[in-house]
Amino acid sequence: MLAHTRADIERSELTQADTVYATAFCDYRSADGYFRKYRMIFVDRKPYPYHLAISDHWLVHYVTADMLPAPWKLEEERAFLKDPAKALGTDALATLENIAKRLDLDYAGIDFSLMPDGRVLVFESNATMLVHPEPHASPLAYKNTYVDAIVDAFAQLIESRRARH
Questions:
Q1: What is the mean pLDDT of each run of 10 residues along the chain (165 residues)?
Q2: How far is the C-alpha of 143 from the C-alpha of 50, rounded, in Å?
């Protein structure tokens, strides 16, 4: 919920029993007016691109971003998946690599965007980020190459840990 005033909060369906976390709204809209939410998965502290959702609404979720009817969105996602450094910039990619190292988890993920000045805006990062393949007949099947890279990296991590013991 985005509330601009106290009246907005009072009109909401929140009750006094609800737990509420409030933070200042950060308008991270890109120059074209769209909001972008990137997801990368960290396997053994290395970032792998997973998806990019582009929406005209500030609360971006892949399933509600209307990606399929907009070929330009899918092309931008493909470009991000193929070359995250080019899509994000080397400074942003270095920031994500640093976050992966500081989290120090075998598996984690991060949802983020880029501010107009190139800084990384983190929405969340945790050890339970979803990764799944797309059906082979789906227009999103191009993502499976990148899902496979994540799965393969995780399998290699498990194998390397098993070999140590």
A1: 77 73 84 97 98 96 95 98 97 97 97 95 95 96 98 96 87
A2: 7
